Amino acid sequence: MAVDAPRGRGWSMDVFEAVRTILAVRRYQDRPVPEATVRRIVEAGRLTGSAKNVQPWHFIVVRDRETLRRLGALAQTGPYAAEAPLAIVVAVDKSRFAVSDASRAIQSMLLTAWADGVGSNWVGFGGLEDVKPLLAIPATLDLLAILPFGYPVGVTGRGKKRRKSLDEVAHRERYGQPFE
To answer: Is the pTM of this model over 0.70?
Structure first.
């Protein structure tokens, strides 16, 4: 059964525009993220494809201020998580494609949030073992990331990125052949 693309259903931004403009956000307004937006963010992660449809991820949605404060204290690369109104902690099964699959889910969540005006940044990739007991994450899982979410403080400068040019990173048919 064919599925039509979701045109005209009220989404505020197309996918390419979200990819083109997304920036890391580390400062958040003291303003809650609406439950409908939180649900859409988590659904985006859940609906992401995974190798052999294993879906090796677990998403722990954290809104409690004290728990957020403790997450910020434990996350060496993201103390700003303490100031976010919301965080989603991503744990994964210890399986072959878990990191790749969950990374895809994380990107889906970040882009979905951004399209709704909610910023985030990936915190983690190691050094998060102390978070597991705080959130009762079993030893059978690995902790991949903490994703603080919130409305950005100030102007975010959407789309103002310093990236290598397309001809530096893209090749046609073989490495070294200009993409043009």
So the answer is: yes
